[in-house]
Amino acid sequence: MHMHKFEKIWLIFGFGALLVFLTVIGVSAFYLGNQPPSCLATIDPEKVDTTAPFNEPGLKKVEGKEWDYELVFVASAFSYSPARVEVPLGAKVKVIATSKDVMHGFQAAGTNVNMMLEPGYISEVVTTFKNPGEFLIVCNEYCGVGHHMMHSMIEVVE
Amino acid sequence: MAKTELNRKIDTETEVEDSTNLNGTLASVMILGAILIITWVGLYMLFLSR
Ligand SMILES: [Cu+2]
């Protein structure tokens, strides 16, 4: 089959890009152990208030883990608990959250924290708060009439 | 005597464009590739910075 020299160039470019991205995904998942925020961890949505760690929402210092703090959030129509929390600058934090009723979103605007909170499932993400300031947490999954009022605030302080 | 035109050759030749010149195609493919790489790197930098 005759193939133009230029066609070879962009085919190699295309397949090369495909290979690079598949490798990135493979390394991320199997070597670095990255996983989606909701990864098979379940909870009874009726008993969220009495199940650890969700019986005590908020920031907690932890020892002997890969992260320094655990930040627990409980979402329910149409609010988050806690409604405001302070986090020290540069802290490596594992955010652990779930929903008591319907599906909610959890996005800390201006950070890489953005996940879905499904009733019955626990969503987790590890992040480092590198920049000081206030970061608004918004619900980005339509959850009902009060959806647009649903928010919380993370304040990163020095 | 009138002649039938059954054997008349019909002119079917159409002009064929020179399809071996792909300079413009190469340029547009490379521009598209560059746009993809620039946006990908830009978003990755954004991801790392926040
Ligand atoms: Cu919501």
UniProtKB/TrEMBL annotation, chain A:
One Pfam family cited in the UniProt record for this chain: COX2
Compartment(s) where it occurs, according to its Swiss-Prot or TrEMBL record: Cell envelope
Gene3D superfamilies hit by this protein: Cupredoxins - blue copper proteins
Domain spans labelled Cytochrome oxidase subunit II copper A binding: 55-158
InterPro entries found in the cross-reference section: Ba3_CcO_II_C, CcO_II-like_C, Copper_CuA, Cupredoxin, NosZ/Cyto_c_oxidase_sub2
Ranges in a coiled coil: none
GO terms, molecular function: copper ion binding; cytochrome-c oxidase activity
Domain of life where this protein originates: Bacteria
Keywords: Copper, Membrane, Metal-binding, Transmembrane, Transmembrane helix
Signal peptide (UniProt feature, chain positions): none
Transmembrane spans: 9-32
Cellular component, GO, one term: cell envelope
Known function: Subunits I and II form the functional core of the enzyme complex. Electrons originating in cytochrome c are transferred via heme a and Cu(A) to the binuclear center formed by heme a3 and Cu(B).
The name this protein goes by in its record: Cytochrome aa3 subunit 2
Organism: Cytobacillus solani
Lineage: Bacteria, Bacillati, Bacillota, Bacilli, Bacillales
UniProtKB/TrEMBL annotation, chain B:
Chain ranges passing through the membrane: 26-47
Alphabetized UniProt keyword annotations: Membrane, Transmembrane, Transmembrane helix
Database matches in InterPro entries: Cyt_c_oxidase_su2a (IPR012538)
Pfam family, one: CoxIIa
Taxonomy, superkingdom: Bacteria
Protein name in the entry: Subunit I/II of b(O/a)3-type cytochrome C oxidase
